[in-house]
Amino acid sequence: MSKARSYKQACNIALALDLIGERWTLLIIRELILGPKRFGDLLPHLQGMGTNLLTTRLKELETHAVIEKQPCSPNSRRMQYKLTPLGEGLENVLRELIRWGIQLPQSPPSPDSLYQPEWDLVAIKLLYKREKAPKLEGTVLIKSVESSIYAIIAKDGLQLDISTTHTHDATIEGNRDSFEKLFKGKSSLNQLISQNSLKISGNTSLARKWASCFS
Amino acid sequence: MSKARSYKQACNIALALDLIGERWTLLIIRELILGPKRFGDLLPHLQGMGTNLLTTRLKELETHAVIEKQPCSPNSRRMQYKLTPLGEGLENVLRELIRWGIQLPQSPPSPDSLYQPEWDLVAIKLLYKREKAPKLEGTVLIKSVESSIYAIIAKDGLQLDISTTHTHDATIEGNRDSFEKLFKGKSSLNQLISQNSLKISGNTSLARKWASCFS
DNA sequence: CGGAATCCTCTTCGATACTG
DNA sequence: CAGTATCGAAGAGGATTCCG
Predict the structure, then answer these.
(1) Which residue has its C-alpha nearest to nucleotide C14's C1'?
(2) End-to-end CA distance of chain B
(3) Which residues have CB under 8 Å from B17's CB, separation 6+?
């Protein structure tokens, strides 16, 4: 049985870290931010982690009600892992980690480091401030050479999809770098448009309002 | 030399965790939130951590410019560790960890778990929302049987002191439990006063305004 | 195929003893 | 007091196997 090493401190920080402070754990949470995933989907995004260790971590998280294991569909025997409401609360922790990570001296992107476009989606989702345009609704296509991301603006936040095509109201087009600047609040949409870095089409008003939610 | 194990992922979360995700690291940051500390001050608050490991962690943090080592006083040979501006940015991460930790199913306080009053001060400092009363200034004494904490309200946030006596404008008195409810936003000052759990004196208006910054 | 269990090696941790 | 050295214990990483 996993006896879960603990700091044994009567402190909320230490308490939290007892549950999600171990190696790999927060990266597992990151993987589940965009929705439920299966064991086999998690593994390739966690290169270097053994299958046994992933099993252990998933069990720990499950016993602490941070995630839950459920059938992919009602009568299926295939299982998927999903954040519980408690686990979703970790969005706030991840958001601040992203913010802190952004301002870090950027090490030159080492060639042996893994990259998954979904990680950008996680950042976009978490950095989006719906309160800046609470009533906004619609779908924006974020198009670059590398990927086509559909951002579906809904009442309960931003839903992001990279794998399926959706009908969309507006399009923002450009390269990854410019989008990064936009989403991370380093440049405004107007700045990037006037620099010819980004281009908008369709419902441009929607696109503008949506983009203003990142600054 | 410390070769600092890395996740090797082009993701801001993973990048951040490469620096501050290892065991004990965030607890060291917690210790430095209230101000600089010496090696010997850190150790007893990190029970179970070997001295060698603390040395290693401090060096890692120093090379990544999260903390810096400096003389206690200009010409002293005694050294202390202090957060850099980059390190101070981790306040946001710690704040969210505290918030998440608070809503965790409270395990019965195990007898072998360590408790340090300073950890409460860290929580108070980080949960205080100055923007709720931006112009407030003064000193509030938070008095319980266990401790006398001076909260000095300043422009750049809350300064907290448990070791020295200060002149104060207002006093809030009660037991630790009630204070916890107040600071963690679970109860309002008015509620706690009407329950006879807390008592205020001195500049009660200041005390009320200050207390409202936690809800 | 998904994922749990087993082994084995290597690294990190934890605790204590030691040194400038 | 501030760290270094050491060593057994625990955990991580990788490959492989087993089972439904």
Answers:
(1) B50
(2) 46
(3) A26, A27, A97, B7
* Total domains, chain B: 2
Strands A67-71 and A79-83: antiparallel
Residue appearing with tokens 């409810």: B181
Per-residue model confidence (pLDDT) at position B106:
79
Mean pLDDT over each residue of chain B, to the nearest integer:
93
Together in a domain, B146 and B198:
yes
Question: Does any domain span residue B154?
Answer: yes
Predicted TM-score (pTM) of the model is 0.92
- The helix-helix angle for B25-32 and B51-63 (nearest 10°) equals 80
Q: Judge if B34 and B94 occupy the same domain.
A: yes
User: Is A88 or B110 the better-scoring residue by pLDDT?
Assistant: A88
Nearest-CA distance A202 → chain B (Å)? 31
Within-domain flag for B110: no
Kindly state whether residues B145 and B187 are assigned to the same domain: yes
Query: CB distance B30–A16 less than 8 Å?
Result: no
| Nucleotide nearest B23, from its CA to each C1' | C13
CATH number at residue A190: 3.30.1050.10
Q: How far is CA B3 from CA A42, A106, B21, B67, in A?
A: 27, 18, 15, 18
A8 with B115: Cβ contact below 8 A: no
**Residue among B10, B100, B115 minimizing CB distance to A114:** B10
Q: What is the rounded distance in angstroms from the CA atom of residue A136 to the CA atom of residue A125?
A: 15
Q: Which of B52, B75, B102 is the last residue of a domain?
A: B102
**Same domain, yes or no, for B207 and B128?**
yes
